[in-house]
Amino acid sequence: MIAFDLVQAALVALSINKLRTGLTVLGIVIGVGAVIALMAAGQGAEQGVTKEVRGLGSNLLVIEPTETQQGGPIRMTASTLTTQDADAIGDTQSFPYVGGVIGQFKLDLESQVVGNGRNTTATMTATQPDFEYVRSYKVAAGRFLSDDDMRRKTTNVVLGAKVAEDLFDTPEDAVGKDVRLSFGPFSLSLSVIGIMEERGASGSGTDDTQILVPLTTFLARVPFGRSATGASNVQQIIVKVTEGDKLEQTKEDIQQLLYERHDSKEDFTVKTQSDLLSTANKVSRTLTILLGAIAGISLVVGGIGIMNIMLVSVTERTREIGIRKAVGASRGDILMQFIIEAVIVTLAGGAIGVLAGVVAARIANGQDFGTGSPVTTVITPWSIFAAFGVSVVTGLFFGIYPAFRASRLDPIEALRAE
Amino acid sequence: MIRLRGIIKVYRAGDVLVPALQGIDLDIERGEFLAIVGPSGSGKSTLMHILGCLDRPTRGTYELEGYDVHRMSDVQLARVRSRRIGFVFQSFNLLPRLPAIMQVELPLTYRRSRNRRQLAMRALAQVGVLDRAHHRPTQLSGGQQQRVAIARALVTNPALILADEPTGALDTKSTADLMETFVRLNSERGITIVLVTHESEVAAYTRRVVQMRDGRIVSDAPPESIRVPTLAQPEHEEGVPA
Questions:
Q1: Domain membership flag for residue B76
Q2: Is B158 part of the contact surface with chain A (CB cutoff 8 Å)?
Q3: Is A11 within 8 Å of chain B by CB?
Q4: What is the pLDDT of residues A209-252, one digit of tens each?
Q5: Is there a contact between B158 and B82 (Cβ–Cβ < 8 Å)?
Q6: CATH code at B95?
Q7: DSSP SS3 for B35
Q8: What is the domain range of residue B184?
């Protein structure tokens, strides 16, 4: 039969029971929509992680402990890395390509910051003066933490752009003012000495909402910063290498040094940004696949709905099939007619589902759903093509068996049916 | 045009074999107008299905315009139905919700014909329901529905029209009108028409009556010369000359 007639016949047949057709389409809409929306969430997570790692700066090595322990009243990793390790790496004699080193502590939880009669939330990072250089991240007003701040364990603080904006009218206003920081049972009174430039989208997610305090002050004031041996622990050491092509070599040298310093125990990892990326992406890709698979299940359920309805439809329309065969329809004609009906249902469901998925992803983008960390969704063209393609294949797959049943009906039996 | 030799058809109903046709020999020439009559269970519908290529005989040969139909595959049979045969059924068997014109176009669609609209219009005109072309079956009377069905049978210009109790669901007036139409198609256009009926006045419109009983042909003669005992309803008796 000519394609146009087939499509027309299918549309007529589908219009006879609009509610049933609508519900079948809805099954596919939900399946396709879910695939697209959840894939967008997965992709968003993937890009978020990538951005965070890239936002750190370039030519960096990140050293983190592999053995951690829980300690103190705040959930926090105690580390095997010490400030002495950081100092040793900073020794320019043995590491000519190391441009700067910072050991730091980054609190996982959000802290309350009160100042100028207002309050906001921020994440606290305790760090060292090389931060500006290592992270390629400058102050916009005032000055950064100095070696003097480290030595004297001052209560000076540098605010991220967003924190300053929330509390003060202009960055210049903020410099010299006092703020109070509280996290868990701890509370620190700090004086603002500088405001960081705004990083926006180029930074690593939390840059603008952090506040930076001297590492030494943090270790002195917060008891769990100190290990049993009295060494000053850090959570993370970030090293900036001056020349990109010396990154791998420096990484190996640092590994060797730390191995010796840690009594031949490999209780740390040294990672380049690409190492970090591949680890992080592995995790978020697994997440994406998992979400996609869950959504895929609903697509399959939608497909089973199509098959179910098609089988009912074939039974109900036995007589129609008999008539069509009597007036000259071949098996192939009947087969095509029912397959096209199934494909039209999935095409319609797929198209609406793509729309629904995109809208859902757009709406979800930036919402935190009460968790405090906003969801990012990224709709990639391939996820749309994939979801749409899978829905059409689903229609074909689940439509073929009922269509085959219809095509095999004996015309005489079919004509007798009521 | 049609040559049946030794046609035997056996159905399997569960474990039991039911013989429906037990050796039918029948020749039908081009342009004949023929009625097959007989009591229910006599095998006339089965014979009709075999003539219409909806079914194959268990044994025997069926030649239609020189083709050995009994040897054909399902696909070939569908092709023969589409090219050479038009069906008219007792219950009209129109597709629900389609306007008359699309009902008539349907066989042409399966033949992949061009000018479908034009041919369908002409067929509707030939049976006198052109003014109902855009009505759906539910908007048509029984007589009109059956005319649409005849137009559908006619539209492919078939060699043979098979009508299975075509007047079974019609009143006397519609029956007469319909039979006139059949007579006209047969005499004016030379279309071969075979109809199954058990109404004697319907059989009386034809020129040859084949009477069946228990899967066999028991008589084959012009309608005037036969008495049809199975046409039991007394009010119909006067239609059959003694």
A1: no
A2: no
A3: no
A4: 889 999 988 888 876 655 555 567 788 899 999 888 888 888 88
A5: no
A6: 3.40.50.300
A7: strand
A8: 31-56+85-239
